[in-house]
Amino acid sequence: MLNRALYVDGEYLAKNPGWHVEESAWKARQVVRALRRNDVAPKTICDVGCGAGEVLRQLQASLDSDCRFWGYDVSPQAIYLAQARASETIRFELGDFGRETEQFF
Predict the structure, then answer these.
(1) Beta-carbon neighbour count of residue 76 at 10 Å?
(2) What is the domain extent for residue 43?
(3) Angle at alpha carbon of residue 105, lines to 69 and 43, rounded to 5°
(4) Is residue 105 part of a domain?
(5) What is the CATH number of the domain that holds 88?
(6) Does residue 34 form part of some domain?
(7) Residue 35, CB half-sphere, CA atoms under 13 Å: how many?
(8) What does the alpha-carbon distance between residue 83 and residue 52 come to, in Å, rounded to a whole number?
(9) Residue 40's pLDDT band (boundaries 50, 70, 90)?
């Protein structure tokens, strides 16, 4: 298991200033492909470990306009980057999804 401090103290951002945003379109395409192949039309999507939030932004552009998106990350730096992608349908939260939320997806 990776050391959580790496994400919380800013070390990860220092080593990965783009937080892998360049890979987001590919990741989102894979998710959309899987959803369509299985005839799934979600109303909510949660990205745990959302990083800079670009995968959710890409998904928003490809899925039904009624779908709502939540991103969770333990890194304050990641959530700071993600907030630029927040909208009426995309929310980002700093925290450990498994411990700090009562949301259901």
Answers:
(1) 14
(2) 5-100
(3) 55
(4) no
(5) 3.40.50.150
(6) yes
(7) 17
(8) 8
(9) very high
Reported confidence tier of residue 46, pLDDT bands at 50, 70, 90: very high
Total-model pTM:
0.89
Tokens of 80: 């700071």
| DSSP states of the chain | ---THHHHSSHHHHH-TTTTGGGHHHHHHHHHHHHHHTT---SEEEEET-TTSHHHHHHHHHS-TT-EEEEEES-HHHHHHHGGG--SSEEEEES-HHHH-----
Q: What is the pLDDT of residues 66-82, one digit of tens each?
A: 999 999 999 999 999 99
Structure tokens given for 37: 């192949």
Q: Which two tokens stand for residue 21?
A: 């945003």
CA distance 57 to 50: 11
